[in-house]
Amino acid sequence: MTSSRSDSKVSVKALVKGLVMLGVLALSVYLIRYAGLGDALDTKWIDTHVRSRGIIGVLTYVGLASFFSAIGFPRQIVCFMGGYAYGAVLGSLLGSIGTGLGCALAFTYARLVGRSFIQNKFGARIQKVDDFLSRSPFNMALTIRFFPLGSNLISSLLAGVTSIPAIPFILGSAVGYLPQNIVFALFGSGVNVSSTSQMVVAVILFIASTLLGFKIYKKYRNQAEAVVE
Prior knowledge:
By secondary structure, the chain is mostly helical. The chain has helices at residues 2-34, 43-51, 54-70, 75-112, 115-122, 125-134, 137-146, 152-160, 166-189, 196-219, 221-228. The two termini are 21 Å apart.
């Protein structure tokens, strides 16, 4: 019974966290489109340096997405701006490439440079993460990325000091990012495309992906708590 109540609280927390983020971005879309605040919210920089510069703009966006994701900036915002710049489909793809590279950068930093600092800071928690991820690095990375709780950056750093191989973890993370990346790119593209139905679809996709993540989380709850807490 206690476990069931705990699961419900975790599920509600995840949904609320994501829906609040969606609400903030929906307000941003309104302000940019209807209140003339595009310059104040710095979409002008994206227009000048990303959208209008062809392949150079694409490389600029992916590079910035990688950097900001690697230092812990919310990937939802990164993909929102990708959707604004390139539309829902291409924005989702480029945002996912950028956030996947950001995961790889954080993982590699932890493995090659920051190992002693991270081990000192997180201590015994690292072994729990190692035990969880070592079952199947790809599938377990997919699990923690589907569920919108915990710190994306901390998960990557902790994984970097475990014994798991890099490639399955990074690929699993990149695939696990996709559902939310698509959702927030849809919201970003809504700045340029006036479509209420598009926003509704984004919210439905977010709720569906969160519930799927929660179902997977329940299966591995005890071990996953060490990663998403």
